[in-house]
C-alpha cells in the first residue's frame, strides 16, 4: 500500500502552467527618497489546476476573500513560512493575491484571488523621471 502512494506522487503531472512568486521592492535614493518600485521574482513552480469545492468558497468568504483559482504544485520551501502580505503570484499575464497556502511534505495548494492584468514594474521609468527633475532643479 505504501508503495502505491509513492508511485502516485511520482506519476503526478503538473503541466497546466507556471506559477511565479514575486515580491515588490521599493527603490530609494541615498537620502531615502522613493525612486520607484520593482518586482523581484522569488520562485517559479509548475502547477495543476484544481476544482474549487464549496468548502473552499465558504472558507475564503470567512477570510473576506473571493477565490478565483485553486492550483496544486510540488512543495517549494517558500510555502513553509509564506507571508501573504509580502508576496503575490503571476500566472501568464494575470496577477493574483495569494489568499492561503495549504501544504504538506510533498504538495502545496494555492488559493488565489485575481487582481488583474500584470505588467512588470522595473522602477526605471520613475527613477529616470526623478533624475531629470533633480537635474532641472540644479
Explain this structure.
The chain has helices at 2-11, 54-62, 124-137, and strands at residues 17-28, 34-50, 69-74, 87-91, 94-103, 107-117. It is of the alpha+beta class. It has a six-stranded antiparallel β-barrel with strand order 1-2-3-6-5-4. The protein is globular and about 55 Å long. The termini are far apart. Mean pLDDT is 80; it is low at 125-138.
Topology:
Layout: H1 2-11, E1 17-28, E2 34-50, H2 54-62, E3 69-74, E4 87-91, E5 94-103, E6 107-117, H3 124-137
Antiparallel strand pairs: 1-2, 1-4, 2-3, 3-6, 4-5, 5-6
Helix content: 10-25%
Radius of gyration: 19 Å
Say what oligomer this is: single chain
String of helices and strands: HEEHEEEEH
Distance between the termini: 76 Å
Q: Main beta sheet: strand number and arrangement?
A: 6 strands, antiparallel, barrel
Low-confidence stretches: 125-138
Tally of extended strands?
6
Count of DSSP-assigned helices: 3
Question: Which features would summarize this protein structure in a list?
Answer:
138 residues; alpha+beta; 3 helices; 6 strands
How would you summarize what this structure contains?
The chain has 138 residues and is α+β, with helices and mostly antiparallel strands.
Amino acid at each position: 500500500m505504501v508503495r502505491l502512494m509513492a508511485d502516485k506522487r511520482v506519476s503526478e503531472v503538473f503541466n497546466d502552467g507556471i506559477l511565479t512568486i514575486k515580491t515588490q521592492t521599493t527603490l530609494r535614493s541615498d537620502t531615502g527618497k522613493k525612486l520607484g518600485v520593482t518586482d523581484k521574482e522569488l520562485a517559479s513552480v509548475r502547477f495543476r489546476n484544481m476544482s474549487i469545492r464549496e468548502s473552499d468558497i465558504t472558507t475564503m468568504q470567512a477570510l473576506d476573500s473571493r477565490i478565483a483559482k485553486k492550483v496544486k504544485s510540488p512543495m517549494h520551501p517558500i510555502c513553509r513560512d509564506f507571508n501573504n502580505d509580502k508576496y503575490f503570484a503571476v500566472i501568464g499575464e494575470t496577477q493574483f493575491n495569494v489568499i492561503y497556502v495549504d501544504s504538506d511534505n510533498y504538495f502545496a495548494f494555492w488559493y488565489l484571488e485575481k487582481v488583474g492584468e500584470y505588467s512588470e514594474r522595473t522602477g526605471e521609468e520613475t527613477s529616470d523621471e526623478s533624475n531629470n527633475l533633480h537635474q532641472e532643479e540644479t
